[in-house]
Specification:
The structure holds two protein chains of two kinds. Chain A is of the alpha/beta class. Chain A has helices at 25-40, 56-60, 91-103, 115-119, 150-166, 171-177, 179-190, 200-207, 217-225, 238-247, and strands at residues 42-47, 71-73, 82-85, 89-90, 109-113, 129-130, 141-143. The longest helix of chain A has 17 residues, at 150-166. Chain A is globular, with a radius of gyration of 21 Å. In chain A, 38% of the residues are buried. Chain B is built from 25 helices and seven strands. Chain B is globular and about 105 Å long. In chain B, the strands form three sheets. A three-stranded antiparallel beta sheet of chain B has the order 5-6-7. In chain B, strand 5 (499-500) and strand 6 (503-504) form a beta hairpin. Chain B has helices at residues 3-21, 25-43, 75-96, 98-105, 110-128, 133-152, 157-187, 192-198, 204-222, 231-237, 241-250, 252-266, 268-273, 283-303, 308-329, 332-363, 379-393, 399-414, 417-442, 458-476, 479-492, 512-533, 565-571, 578-603, 605-622; strands at 56-57, 62-64, 67-69, 72-73, 499-500, 503-504, 510-511. The chains are: A alpha/beta, B mainly alpha. The A-B interface holds A 47, 76-78, 93, 95-97, 99-100, 103, 196-198, 203, 206-207, 229-238, 240-241 and B 373, 376-377, 379-380, 446, 454-455, 457-458, 535, 537-545, 547-551. The complex binds iron/sulfur cluster.
C-alpha cells in the first residue's frame, strides 16, 4: 500500500495561503483577511456515499446549525469549497468522487467522515470498497467514528476552519503537485484506460503548480489514450462566411 | 403636395418597386432604402411628434355619398406611423440579405414577400391617415387583406391559419360596419367632429351597442379576449421577418382605431357613466378587465409553447392587454404607459422574432426542445435576445420597464388593486416564459449537430443590434419616447404627462438615468472583479456536474421539455382550452346552419315553395 508520507512533497506554499510570511506588514494583513474570509464562507458539496450521511441533516438544521459558522450546502462542485465524503466508498462511487473533486475550483478541501473513509472500517474485507480515501484524492480532515455525531462533524469543520485561517489547509495543491501518484493509485483500481473529463495536467500548468512529481509513468499512460475535450470558444464566424461568399 | 402626400406617394412607390424588383438581389436593398426614405418623409412631419404641429392634411380627397373623404396625420398617426415604418425598414433589411436568398432557394417568392410587406406598410399608413370614419373603414379593410396576404404566403398550414384570421377579420369588419351604420343613422355623417358632438346626446342603449360593436370590431384585430385565438398561430407561421413585422405593429392598428374612436371621440369619461346594471362595474371597468384577462390568459398559454415563434406570438397577444389597460385607465400615467408600450413592445418583439428567425436560419428549427447551448456559437444573437427578453419581461434597464412601470403606477393611483394584481400575475408569466425561451435556445448544452453553427450573417445581426440599441437607449432616456406620447395625449385630449429626459417628476417618480447608471456601475464593478480577480479557466461543456455522472455527447442533460413541472402541477388543470372549445362549437353551429340553409334552397326548395304558396293562398282565402 502506498504511503503518502513516503512521497517527497515540495514544501512550497504560496504566500496567499499563508506559508511564508511576507515582509510587507500590509500584505500580511491582507493575506490574513483573505484567509479569514475564506474560512468563514464555505459552501459544501456533500457527496452522501454511505450511512454517515444521516448525521448531516441534524448538523445542518436548527439543532446544531452549521450555517452559523458560515457553512452551507451547495448544489454543484463548481461553486463548492468543501467536498464531504460521508461513509464507505465503493469503487464505482470513487470514480464519481474523483470526477466531482476535479471539477471543484481551487482552493478546495475534502473531509472524510466516518471510519470507512479512513481505513475501510467495517467494510475492510469487502471486495467492492476503496479502503483508504486519501490514496486517491488528498483529504484535509478525517472525522472518525461509526458514525460520528453532529458535534464531532461540527468540531471537525471547526478544525478545518482553523487550518484554513492559519494557512495549513493546502492539500488541494498536492493533487496537482503529485498527480502522478494519485493517478497511479486510481489506475490500479480502475484500469489503465481510466480518465476524467478534467485535464488536470493542463490545470496544473494553468495554476503554476507543476512539479517534477506531476508527470510520470502513469500520466504518460493517461496521455496515450486521452481524448482531450476542447472548451467551446466564441465564434462569430464572419471570416469563414466571407470566404464562402467569394466562392459563390 | 403636402408632406403627407409625399409620404404616401413614396410608400406607394416602394410597393411598386417591391413588386417589380423584389426578386432580384438589389431589389431587396432598394426597397429597404425606400423605407428609409419613407422614414425621412415622416421626419418632415416630426413637428407632429413634438406638439409644434397639430395636423398635416393630404391634398387628395374624394367625395362619396356626399361625404368628403379626408386623409390627414395627427400626433397619434405620426407616432404609429413611426413604428410602422421603422418595423418595415428593419424587417426588410433583415430579409434582404442571406435570409432572402435562402427563402428564394427554398422556392419562396421573394417578390411576393417584399410586395406583401410593402403593401402592409402602405395600407397601414393609409389607415393611420384616415380623417373620418369611412376612410377608417377603407383603411381597415386594406390592412386586413394585406395582413392576410403576408400570412398566407407560406402556404400549407399557414394558409389555414390565415383563413382562420380572415374569418375573424370578416366578423370584426361586420361588427365595425354595423357600428358605422349605427353612427350614420344617429349622426347623419361619418365626420369625426360630428360624432364627437353627437355623443353627449346619445342614449345609453345606443352608446352601449355602439361601444360593443366597435370594440368587437377593433378587438378582433388586437386579438383581445375572446378573439385571441387566431393571432399567435397565424403570426408564427408567417415567413421570417414577416412575422417580426406583424408581431411588432400589425395588431396595433386595432389599438389605433380604438384610441381614435372610443377614447378620442366617445371619450373614457362617457364610458365611466355607462353603468352595468346590478353590478358595481361600468364600461371602463369592463374594458379594463378584458385587458387584464388578455394579459393573463395568453401569457400563460405562451408558457406552454414548444415553438419559439409561437411562444413569442402568444406574448404579442398578452402584451396587447397592457397597452389596452393603460389606455383604458386614461389618466396621464396610464395612457402614456400604454402608448409607450406600443413603441417599446414593437422594438423588442421585432428583435426577438429576428433572433429566433436567425436561429432557424442557422439550425433549421425553432423547436425549443431541439436547441440549446447556442450561446457560444451565436453570441451576438444571444445578446440581442437577452436585451429583448429583459425588455419583454419589463425589467430595468430596458424600455419595457418604463412603460410597465407607468401602467402599474397608474393602476395604483387609480385605486385598482385587483387590476394591478392581474397585471403583475401576467408579468410573472412573462418572466417565466422568456427565461424558458433564452434557456432552451442559448443556454445549456450545445447539441452535437449544432457544433458547426455560426453566428447569423451581418444582414441579420445589424438590424438586431440596432434594435437592441434602441431598446436600451429608450430605456436609459425614456423622455425621448415620452415626448411623442405627450404629443399624442395632447392631440387626443387626455391629460398630458409631465416628464423629463430620464422619466417623470412626481412623488415616488421615476428617473431611469439614475437607475440605469447605478445598475451600470454595479455591473461594471462585477466585470472588473471578474476580469482582474483571478485566473479563470474555460472548460468543456461535458466537463459538467450531473450528480457525478460521466457525460458524453449522447447524454442529454439539457433540461428543456416539460419546463416548470412544479408550476404546471399547480396550474396545469386550469388549461382547459375553453376558448378553443367555444370556437369549435361556434364553427359547428354555423356549419349546421349553413347546411340547413343549403338543404332548404337546393334540395327541398320546390316542395317548400309549394307548401308556402299553398299556406299563403289558403290563409288568404280563409281570411
Ligand atoms: S463508518 Fe460506520 S456509519 Fe460510517 S459508513 Fe462506515 S459503517 Fe457506515
Amino acid at each position: 500500500m502506498n504511503e503518502l508520507d513516503k512521497i517527497p512533497v515540495r514544501q512550497e506554499i504560496s504566500v496567499a495561503q499563508g506559508g511564508a510570511k511576507r515582509t510587507n506588514p500590509l500584505a500580511n494583513v491582507f493575506d490574513e483577511l483573505v484567509r479569514f474570509c475564506q474560512s468563514r464562507s464555505m459552501f459544501m458539496l456533500h457527496y452522501c456515499t454511505g450511512c454517515g450521511a444521516i448525521e448531516l441533516p441534524p448538523a445542518m438544521t436548527s439543532r446544531f446549525d452549521m450555517e452559523r459558522l458560515g457553512i452551507q450546502p451547495m448544489v454543484t462542485p463548481r461553486q463548492a469549497d468543501i467536498l464531504l465524503i460521508t461513509g464507505y466508498v465503493s469503487v464505482k462511487t470513487l470514480k464519481r468522487i474523483i470526477l466531482t473533486y476535479e471539477q471543484m475550483p481551487a482552493p478546495k478541501y475534502v473531509i472524510g467522515i466516518c471510519s470507512c473513509t479512513v481505513n475501510g472500517g467495517m467494510y475492510w474485507q469487502s471486495y467492492a470498497t476503496a479502503k483508504v480515501l486519501r490514496e486517491y484524492i488528498p483529504v484535509d480532515i478525517y472525522i472518525a467514528g461509526c458514525m460520528p455525531r453532529p458535534e464531532a462533524v461540527i468540531s471537525g469543520l471547526r478544525d478545518l476552519m482553523g487550518d484554513i485561517k492559519s494557512g495549513r489547509a493546502d492539500n488541494w495543491k498536492r493533487y496537482f503537485q503529485n498527480y502522478d501518484h494519485y493517478l497511479g493509485n486510481q489506475q490500479q483500481l480502475f484500469g489503465e484506460d481510466w480518465q476524467t473529463p478534467t485535464d488536470i495536467i493542463a490545470e496544473a500548468e494553468h495554476y503554476g503548480l507543476m512539479t517534477d512529481q506531476t508527470l510520470g509513468e502513469h500520466t504518460a499512460l493517461l496521455q496515450k489514450h486521452q481524448q482531450p475535450l476542447e472548451a467551446l470558444e466564441f465564434s462569430l464566424g464572419e471570416k469563414r462566411e466571407k470566404i464562402q461568399g467569394e466562392e459563390r | 403636395m403636402t408632406a403627407l402626400d409625399n409620404l404616401l406617394l413614396i410608400s406607394a412607390v416602394t410597393l411598386v418597386i417591391a413588386v417589380l424588383a423584389g426578386n432580384s438581389r438589389v431589389g431587396g436593398w432598394l426597397v429597404t432604402i425606400m423605407y428609409a426614405l419613407q422614414g425621412a418623409a415622416l421626419m418632415m412631419m416630426s413637428g407632429l411628434g413634438y406638439s409644434t404641429l397639430t395636423m398635416v392634411q393630404s391634398s387628395f380627397s374624394i367625395e362619396v355619398l356626399s361625404q368628403q373623404l379626408l386623409w390627414r396625420f395627427d400626433a397619434l398617426s405620426w407616432f404609429f406611423a413611426l413604428i410602422t415604418i421603422g418595423a418595415g425598414l428593419f424587417c426588410s433589411w433583415f430579409a434582404s440579405g442571406e435570409w432572402g436568398e435562402k427563402y428564394r432557394d427554398n422556392g419562396g417568392s421573394l417578390r411576393l414577400f417584399h410586395g406583401a410587406l410593402a403593401l402592409n406598410v402602405f395600407s397601414m399608413l393609409v389607415l393611420l391617415a384616415s380623417g373620418d370614419l369611412l376612410t377608417l373603414f377603407i383603411g381597415w379593410e386594406l390592412v386586413s387583406w394585406a395582413s392576410f396576404l403576408i400570412m398566407a404566403l407560406a402556404g400549407g398550414k399557414a394558409f389555414g391559419y390565415a383563413m382562420r384570421y380572415i374569418s375573424y377579420a370578416f366578423a370584426g369588419a361586420m361588427a365595425l360596419l354595423g357600428g358605422l351604420l349605427l353612427i350614420y343613422a344617429e349622426v347623419g355623417s361619418f365626420d369625426f367632429q360630428s360624432l364627437k358632438e353627437a355623443v353627449p346626446t346619445m342614449s345609453s342603449a345606443t352608446l352601449w351597442l355602439l361601444v360593443v360593436l366597435l370594440t368587437a370590431g377593433f378587438g378582433v384585430k388586437m386579438a383581445i379576449l375572446p378573439f385571441h385565438l387566431w393571432q399567435a398561430k397565424a403570426y408564427a407561421e408567417t415567413p421570417g421577418p414577416g412575422a417580426a413585422f406583424l408581431g411588432a405593429i400589425s395588431s396595433r392598428m386595432g389599438l389605433f382605431a380604438f384610441i381614435v374612436v372610443i377614447v378620442q371621440l366617445i371619450g373614457i369619461s362617457r364610458l365611466v357613466e355607462m353603468k352595468i346594471p346590478f353590478t358595481f362595474l361600468d364600461a371602463q371597468d369592463l374594458l379594463a378587465w378584458i385587458a387584464v384577462f388578455t394579459i393573463i390568459i395568453p401569457t400563460y398559454i405562451a408558457l406552454r409553447q414548444h415553438d419559439a415563434r409561437r411562444l413569442l406570438a402568444w406574448h404579442g397577444v398578452g402584451q396587447t392587454g397592457y397597452m389596452l389597460l393603460g389606455i383604458v385607465i386614461a389618466n396621464d400615467l396610464g395612457s402614456a404607459g400604454g402608448l409607450m408600450h406600443v413603441f417599446n413592445y414593437a422594438t423588442y418583439q421585432a428583435m426577438l422574432f429576428m433572433v429566433v428567425i436567425a436561429v432557424i436560419h442557422r439550425t433549421g428549427t425553432s423547436n425549443l426542445n431541439k436547441l440549446g447551448g447556442l450561446f457560444t456559437r451565436m453570441p451576438l444573437s444571444y445578446l440581442a435576445m437577452l436585451v429583448g427578453i429583459i425588455g419583454l419581461a419589463g425589467l430595468p434597464p430596458m424600455n419595457g420597464f418604463v412603460s410597465k412601470w407607468l401602467i402599474y403606477r397608474s393602476l395604483i393611483v387609480d385605486g385598482s388593486p385587483l387590476l394591478f394584481l392581474g397585471a403583475v400575475i401576467g408579468t410573472l408569466g412573462t418572466i417565466l416564459s422568456v427565461y424558458k425561451l433564452i434557456h432552451n435556445i442559448f443556454l445549456g448544452q450545445l447539441r452535437v449537430e449544432h457544433v458547426a453553427v455560426r453566428e447569423a450573417p451581418l444582414s441579420m445581426v445589424i438590424p438586431m443590434m440596432l434594435l437592441a440599441a434602441v431598446v436600451f437607449v429608450t430605456g436609459y432616456f425614456p423622455g425621448l419616447v415620452l415626448d411623442w406620447t405627450s404629443a399624442v395625449q395632447a392631440s387626443i385630449g387626455i391629460p398630458v404627462l409631465a416628464h423629463h429626459l430620464g422619466g417623470i417628476d412626481m412623488k415616488g417618480g421615476l428617473d431611469m438615468i439614475w437607475i440605469v447608471s447605478v445598475l451600470l456601475v454595479g455591473f461594471g464593478f462585477g466585470t472588473l472583479v471578474f476580469f482582474l480577480g483571478g485566473r479563470s479557466k474555460r472548460v468543456h461543456q461535458l466537463d459538467n456536474y450531473a450528480g457525478g455522472h460521466f457525460l458524453t455527447a449522447e447524454t442529454r442533460y439539457h433540461y428543456s421539455d416539460n419546463f416548470y413541472p412544479g408550476l404546471m402541477h399547480l396550474i396545469g388543470p386550469w388549461y382547459r382550452n375553453s376558448f378553443e372549445w367555444l370556437e369549435r362549437g361556434l364553427i359547428s353551429a354555423v356549419d349546421t346552419l349553413s347546411t340547413a340553409m343549403q338543404g332548404l334552397y337546393r334540395n327541398a326548395h320546390p316542395s317548400y315553395l309549394l307548401l308556402a304558396v299553398v299556406v299563403f293562398a289558403l290563409s288568404w282565402v280563409i281570411v
